[in-house]
Design brief:
This protein has 706 residues and is α/β, with parallel strands linked by helices. The chain has four domains: 2-132, no CATH class; 252-334, Threonyl-tRNA Synthetase, Chain A, domain 2, CATH 3.30.980; 380-605, 3-Layer(aba) Sandwich (Rossmann fold), CATH 3.40.50; 631-705, Arc Repressor Mutant, subunit A, CATH 1.10.10.10. 49% of the residues lie in helices and 10% in strands. The chain is built from 26 helices and 13 strands. It has helices spanning 2-12, 18-32, 37-51, 61-79, 90-95, 98-132, 137-165, 187-202, 205-220, 252-269, 298-302, 305-312, 343-347, 350-353, 392-406, 441-465, 470-476, 492-513, 535-540, 552-559, 593-605, 631-634, 639-649, 654-661, 665-677, 696-705; strands at residues 274-281, 285-292, 318-320, 329-334, 360-366, 371-375, 382-385, 412-417, 484-489, 519-525, 543-546, 572-576, 584-588. The strands form two sheets. It has a nine-stranded mixed beta sheet. It has a four-stranded antiparallel beta sheet with strand order 1-2-4-3. The chain is elongated, with a radius of gyration of 41 Å. The termini are far apart.
Length: 706
């Protein structure tokens, strides 16, 4: 027995004891868990007892009973840290109290519950201590009470002696003046209390309580809340107009743990050794942070995305390899039930309430459930794109509502361009609007052109006052304070179809120069193609939001990287602000149309007598560009001959002019452009030939007039 005990101890200590030693180690680990060393020590003690029995060795039964009870308590205490329902999980059996500990813990939990089991363990520990020592619990209590009583008697005697030595106050007449020698230190407090009581008598009690509570609330909320009205009389809408998100009562942790185990098994079945080191449960997706074993390539995990989705029965998964700032790979799996992110939850978060920014906007919550708030003035422009129904319109409503809750009309002005006509018209009448919502695409081009002129006007003011930006100007000239301006275009594709040249030129000029002038753009489109989001626009708008798109090509058009094609829709977005290496996955905040209506109605009702600042009318006309024939072509001696030849041969092309008149491509191209400007031939239409628009008689008249 002594040899067996020593052999087991050596095996448990991970020395090389062969196959038998490994089997014994596994058996003890399953039976006793991390406490397997104690039974092995017991075997050594037992074997030693029989060895020394011939030498009249006396066995201490008290010590043996204490050892056994301590081992039982240690087993219980070790295994009670295992979550309820996982007592017989093999992972916990070997790492905690073994089968013995799990069986005892499960039995006690079933009989007396979690709290009862904890109390029982504590009680057994106290009994063991009393059993091993001669100390009695009752005698200990008696000693403590006796010492306490003696100290109380001593304190009473000390107080009595000091009170006898105190100076007693003398009686005096009412006509005599009070001496300061007889005023106690507490008299000041009594005086204040008497005054406060007399004030309450003069007022009604209810009124006094209401005033006191209001004063306290104002003091408490002075730092956290804004003033209700601004210098222009704007009243911020109450937060109660928005709804709170409904929390789904479901044990997400248990579900996530099961998926983590399944994920490890799935990766192992494909030959990838990895371990889940962290789980982040978000509103719509859960991210599992995987730490691959040394030698495992990240690309191998990325290539298994479809296989992982199949094994986990997930609609779509996204792999972030690696996670920025961590030596781990993130696997994002959709939740079985999405939890709503209400806009009110983000607006009530300290990041928004105490955030420092000129144009704070609430976007939603990230994978970890933290609020995502951005400052539009630092972006400085934002591009929003995604497929139909992915959440763009709701996102625009949350941006506008955030501005209404955080900024007064003195601080921020809005220009809303809505070619869809019905999306943003509800905001008509609020004092933040510089002009009514623009729905005509041609007027929209004029509004953008006015914004360019306003930008140039502001830069002249900055130059005259020797400041660099709007912030410096407002500090230098507070009486001429300029508001920030946000231009929101709900559907860029429609504007690009109607007036692409003027719209793109204005957008590019604003994107390049308008930041310092306090003018910021928010462009939204549901058609993320290169003819809408041109390279020039993308180069000048660094901050982007991509909702779910249909293909990887669209994702690359918006974000310059793949990933948006794997989003879930319904507000699931990738937010890529300027200066960030990787986009952030965000579940967008949700606001209903009814809530938008309630907020705008509240602002309109409380802004009827509001003095609107900077209320000058805006000229929405576009300067007409006259089609002027180039001077070089006007003087070209071949113009008349080339036009007659085209009318005769019906061949209106640059290459035909080159071959017929033996001229270079540049001169032939200028001739063709001149004839197009004069209305002789039609414009180029891809591979189709140009059409001849006039007759020979009309050509003679045109040539005479040039």
């Amino acid at each position: 027995m002594l040899f067996l005990g020593v052999f087991v101890i050596i095996s448990i200590l991970r020395f090389n004891t062969g196959v038998i030693g490994d089997l014994i180690t596994q058996a003890f680990s399953v039976l006793f868990g991390i406490l397997s060393i104690f039974p092995a020590i017991g075997l050594v003690v037992w074997g030693g007892y029989y060895t020394l029995k011939a030498s009249n060795f006396s066995w201490n039964r008290k010590l043996l009973l204490a050892f056994f009870s301590y081992f039982l308590i240690a087993t219980l205490y070790t295994h009670i840290m295992v979550p309820t329902g996982y007592e017989f999980d093999m992972k916990y059996i070997t790492e905690y109290g073994g089968i013995i500990g799990s069986s005892i813990t499960w039995s006690f939990r079933w009989m007396i519950g979690e709290i009862g089991t904890t109390i029982l363990i504590t009680l057994l520990l106290v009994i063991d201590i009393l059993f091993l020592t001669k100390w009695s619990l009752s005698s200990g209590v008696q000693k403590i009470s006796k010492k306490t009583e003696e100290k109380l008697i001593l304190v009473k005697k000390t107080i009595k002696k000091k009170s006898q030595t105190l100076k007693k106050p003398e009686f005096f007449s009412e006509n005599e003046e009070e001496s300061n020698d007889f005023l106690y230190k507490s008299s000041k407090k009594k005086h204040i209390k008497e005054n406060s009581i007399s004030e309450v008598k003069n007022k009604s009690i209810k009124k006094y309580i209401d005033e006191t509570l209001n004063d306290k609330n104002e003091e408490l909320d002075k730092d956290d809340s804004k003033e209700i009205k601004t210098r222009s009389g704007y009243k911020f809408p109450p937060i109660e107009l928005l709804h709170k998100s409904i929390k789904i009562s479901e044990n997400y942790f248990d579900i996530a743990k099961e998926k983590a185990d399944l994920l490890e098994k799935t990766l192992k079945s494909f030959g990838v050794s990895a371990k889940v080191i962290n789980i982040s449960i978000g509103p719509s997706v859960t991210r599992f942070e995987i730490e691959p074993a040394p030698g495992v390539k990240v690309r191998k995990i990325e290539n298994l995305s479809d296989d992982i989705a199949l094994q986990l029965a997930a609609t779509q998964i996204r792999i972030e390899a690696p996670i920025p700032g961590k030596s781990a790979v993130g696997i994002e799996i959709p939740n079985e039930k999405n939890s709503e992110v209400a806009l009110r939850d983000v607006l009530e978060d300290n990041k928004f309430k105490r955030g420092k920014g000129n144009i704070l906007v609430a976007l939603g919550k990230d994978i970890a459930g933290n609020a995502v708030v951005a400052d539009l003035s630092k972006m400085p422009h934002l591009l929003i794109a995604g497929a139909t129904g992915s959440g763009k319109s709701v996102c625009i409503n949350t941006l506008i509502t955030s501005i209404l809750y955080n900024s007064s009309p003195d601080d921020v002005k809005l220009i809303l361009i809505d070619p869809k006509v019905v999306e943003l018209s509800i905001y008509n009448g609020i004092p933040h609007l510089r002009i009514d919502v623009v729905t005509d695409p041609k007027k929209a081009a004029g509004a953008l052109n006015w914004a360019v002129r306003e930008m140039e006007h502001r830069y002249k003011l900055f130059s005259e006052n020797k400041v660099r930006d709007i912030k410096g100007f407002n500090i230098a000239k507070p009486e001429l304070k300029l508001p920030y301006m946000v231009i929101i275009i709900d559907e860029l594709a429609d504007l690009m179809m109607v007036a692409s040249d003027s719209v793109e030129d204005s957008i590019c000029r604003l994107a390049q120069k308008a930041r310092a002038a306090g003018i910021h753009l928010v462009l939204a489109t549901q058609r993320p193609s290169v003819d809408v989001i041109t390279g020039v626009i993308k180069a000048n708008i660094p901050s982007r939001i991509s909702f779910a798109v249909s293909s990887q090509i669209d994702s690359r058009t918006i974000l310059d990287r793949a990933g948006a094609e794997k989003l879930l829709g319904k507000g699931d977005m990738l937010f890529d602000p300027s200066g960030v290496a990787y986009p952030i996955r965000v579940q967008g905040a949700f606001i209903t149309d009814k809530e938008v209506e309630n907020i705008t109605n509240f602002i309109k009702e409380n802004s009827s007598g509001l003095i609107k600042l900077d209320n000058k009318p805006i000229d929405l006309s576009i300067p007409e560009i006259k089609e002027i024939v180039p001077f070089e072509s006007q003087q070209d001696e071949l113009l008349g001959e080339a036009a007659e030849w085209i009318l005769d041969t019906k061949r209106a092309s640059v290459s035909a002019l080159q071959r017929r008149f033996r001229i270079g491509y540049t001169r032939a191209g200028r001739l063709m452009d001149t004839m197009e400007a004069m209305g002789i031939v039609s414009g180029a239409d891809g591979a189709k030939p140009r059409e001849i628009l006039i007759s020979k008689d009309e050509l003679e008249i045109k040539l005479k007039n040039t």
